[in-house]
Amino acid sequence: MSEIQAYSIFYENYKNDSFEEAIKFGRWMWQGMPETIEGYSRFDLKRNIGRLVTSYNEMAQKQEDPSLKEAYVDTALLIFDRAFEKFSDDKDAKYDWYIKRGRLLQTHSDNVDNASMRAAENYYKAFQLKPEELTKRSKGYYIQRILNEFSSGGKKDEALAVMKKAEPHASQELLNSFSNVREELFDSPEEQIEFLESELESSPEDEEALTKLRDVYQEQEMAAEAREVSQKLYELNPNFENIMAVAEAAKNNANYDSAIQYFKEAMDKASTDKEKADIALNISEAYLNQDQLQSARKFARQAINNNNSWGDPYIQIADIYARAVNQCTGDRKLTPEDKAVYWLVLDYLDKAKQVDPNTSNEVDRKYQSYKPVTPSKSEKFFWKPPLEEGESFEINSSLMECYVWINETTTVR
């Protein structure tokens, strides 16, 4: 097989998310690192390095066997090593690859030793290449990752140098976070907790100290302590921030009744439609976790009303209807009537992708789960009367009584 034939098969499989096949026909590119291939003038090795890494990353995420997952990640990291060696003078490519390698390490932190610190070190190298660009990228996320890891890893001087270099380009929100980082650099979390707790012994209602203590508890994953402090702050000052904190704490603790109560209280104090949409979706998720599907749909719809260009509430309704099928079927086998509900599920996934392209990856992943379960050609043919593609179809009690509450119209696919 010629290189151009192999590349063509690789690229088609990559576009179709057939990553295992893409790897089979693309391995030669990273092993040989050809900058050109005969017969195709538009071949771009740097771009295809990114595609190969994506393919190995996707395959790693699909593996249940830790050793297989680790093998795919190791190969992706090896590709990066080869790329950095090949394009050692290409500042732009190296900047992008440092970020991508950092993301890869974060994604597979359970299977890579010291992954979080290694990811931060890659972001730091990208920062050294383009300090202004990385500081502004993703609202300062990568700078915060660097500082968090350097701070916890004892790299005090490096963290201080990053903040000094980033300050001229940082947003006010990022600058505010620098103050907290500086405090942490000079005290371990244990020392900081001890200090704040001693401060609160003499001033138990000091909201600033309580807020800092809550933040430290959360950073240290001391969930019970964080919930206790959040509750005290809520009792002292039930402002929007403190209500949301107790709501999130209740939700994370699977205390959905309390979470719903607090989120509804926060709704009354929300100042923007975006905040209201976020809260409504949180309430919907809490109801869904309780299998209260009609209430879950009600608040997902409310989230859409507050922010109709956000795809997540549409995905939420798709999940609610998929859960409805699970509730209706129980232990019995899926019937064609049950499968028809998945047409409506796909409708909402399509809508999510239409209004919010950022949901494309999640929508595509869910499509792979739901589309194969829709009625087959034979099931549509033997329907009484037979169903034709494109005709309207009602999802209600005409299917089964348990679907009466859905009461929506879809289209035969």
TrEMBL record:
SUPFAM superfamilies: TPR-like (SSF48452). Gene3D superfamilies: Tetratricopeptide repeat domain. It comes from the Bacteria. This is Tetratricopeptide repeat protein. It comes from Fodinibius salipaludis.
